[in-house]
Structure formats: structure tokens, C-alpha cells
Amino acid sequence: AQKVTQAQTEISVVEKEDVTLDCVYETRDTTYYLFWYKQPPSGELVFLIRRNSFDEQNEISGRYSWNFQKSTSSFNFTITASQVVDSAVYFCALRGTGANNLFFGTGTRLTVIP
Amino acid sequence: SQTIHQWPATLVQPVGSPLSLECTVEGTSNPNLYWYRQAAGRGLQLLFYSVGIGQISSEVPQNLSASRPQDRQFILSSKKLLLSDSGFYLCAWRESPLTEAFFGQGTRLTVV
Fold first, then answer.
1. pLDDT at res. A99
2. Would the CB atoms of B49 and A95 count as touching at under 8 Å?
């Protein structure tokens, strides 16, 4: 079975603070894909990153960084020097081999306070 | 570049009325198409997906149906809406099951 858990329902930080959003996944597939999406107040889901299960290299993109650890089945997302525009709901998602579905976590609502 | 259009953005419908939400994709051919529903405070639930014209797979039993009359058109319908159909509906596409999905702007449906 595929499952994604985002234990943090809501997080509030003050602008310029760093914040890490947790994502823990479950799958029996040996090959799978992990994703992060951002959902701003407008509602549209914005794709942020995709990682393959065979590539555990961490990735940095500007103020965003992702820490993928297969040993703990985690794919955490860190925003450095947060900004008000980062306020949104962030979703972690998983797709297993042969599956046509993305399994989403319940999301983490991040509020950055100016 | 590819774009996805979804309309209407908001909709208020009485219980028992029909529903038709439309989604179209431009700039690609034979996309995989998806309808998701997001209930308040919850993640996204896959309702339907389609890998080609006329091919619809349903993930959960419900009061809704989907159709794909054209390659880049995906329609979500209901003959009689229920209060529980209220939610945020998102259409998405991707080139293949291996790639990321791109989402439309969503339709907020309120059934009253």
C-alpha cells in the first residue's frame, strides 16, 4: 500500500526563519517517485520537485532544499530565510511503480508572519 | 508550452442539480488526464483518470462520472448533486505516469 504522512498540520514562522516540512512515506515498491507541490491561496497546485527512489542526492534550488533519506522513508523540505510569499499549503506525494495515481499527504499549511 | 484550463472557478449548485466541469489541455497530445477532489483540510483524492479518448478509470465509487470526448478534454459530471459533493476539484495532466502532474486552477463547488 502507498501512504504519505505529513504530521505537521500547520506551521507558523516569522519571516527570515528557516522551516522544515516533514514527509514520511510508505511503499512496497522498490522504484517509486516522490513529489512536493505548493498550493497558494489561489488553489492551483504548483509542482516543485520530483525525486526518484534510486537517487538519494539532496537537492537545492534557491531557498528550497530537499532531504531524501530512504533509510527513514522521509523526504523533507526546507525553506531557508522564509518569505511571506512562501505562505501556502505544501503537499508531499508518492507514486509507485506501475501506479497511475499520486498519493498525497494531507498537507502542511505554512504561514510566514512578516 | 503546455497549459491546462479548468472552468468554472467557482460554482454554487442546489442539491439534485446536474454538474459539468470542464478541463482542457493545450500544447501536448495524448496526455494522461486526472480529476482530483480536495475536501477541506484534507489531501487530494483521485476520482478518475484517463489514458486516452473514451478510456476512463474510476478510483472510488461515487455520485460522479467522467468522460473524455476528445484527446485533450476531460469532463466531470453528475446527474444529481449531493451535499457531500462539495469540495475543491482539480484537473491535472501529465505526459506519462512517470512524469510529474500539472494542475489546473481548480473549481470550488458548493452544493446547497
1. 65
2. no
